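Milestone M4 deliverable, item 7.
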Amino acid sequence: MTRSEWFTSFDVEAFEVPGGREENWRFTPLKRLAGLHLGEAATTGTATVDVVAGEAVRVETVERGDARLGVAGTPGDRVAAQAWNSFTGATLVTVPKEVVATEPILVTVTGAGRGTTSYGHVQLRAEQFAEAVVVLDYRGSGVHADNVEIVLGDGAKLTVVTVVDWADDAVHVSSHHGKVGRDATLRHTVVTLGGNLVRLSPTVAYDGPGGDAELLGVYFADAGQHLEHRLFVDHGVPNCRSNVVYKGALQGEDAHTVWIGDVLIRAAAEATNTFELNRNLLLTDGARADSVPNLEIETGEIEGAGHASATGRFDDEQLFYLQARGIPVEQARRLVVRGFFHEIIAKITVPEVRERLEAAIEAELEAVGV
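Output delivered:
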């Protein structure tokens, strides 16, 4: 089936209960989803959402019937539809027209606690020619499913950095829906570190020509963790650009990561330029990384399109080069891992997030003895 024909709906019952053989679910351990995929997981707690923003930024809590909600995209699976129908109040953050937010906007989502299930909805909106950086930070415990809408008006520039750093018990299923206006620029970065099971699905679609989207990701899986990222970039209008780069490291028995990268260039999307890359570094035995890039092109009138994927262990040539210059093997391994992630870390413009990520990687390397 072409990616353009995948079913979407706000109705939970319009989706069949997944059994694990469906393309959209075949890598996900359904038994570890705490019933979210069944559409029957009752709300037993409420995740808290705290927002720190400048005076020019509007922060609201709105009901599901608000006309501004649901414009960025429609749920593409049963869990996303359940989250849409189960949240009690949506957090709406708006950067008004032509406003340039000088400080990062901090949105912190804290789980309801171990053994609880919660649902949420966050919309990040940059109106025409607005500019802002938003840090969306997930932390705490519990089972949480949500939808995140990212809406860019014409000419807007929005950077969204999502940090997923749950406690070890947490289960998190999240769908990000990005809508990029004419000549707008979206920089979307995901940093996934914590949680028992995390499944994050960013989708980007264009609302006018000239849109530019860059989707970056860093993830580090420990023993027993399942970290899954499923991306979809939908080029439906001409003269737009997308670039996807995700990198992950794994260590420990049964550490498992999944990366699915779907790019669709529709017939109307002439002069599209797109590329996607996923690389995985296996630090120990017993870890597994699944990587599936998909590129579907319906027109030959494009500027460029490509994808690449690689999974492997330390580069022996890099280690030899460093050791030949007197660097001990353990330090050489650390330098290789730092260099592996540097391309993405260097693009994180929020110093606190960059330093937090660097410290987390150092702690992971220390734990595995690299």
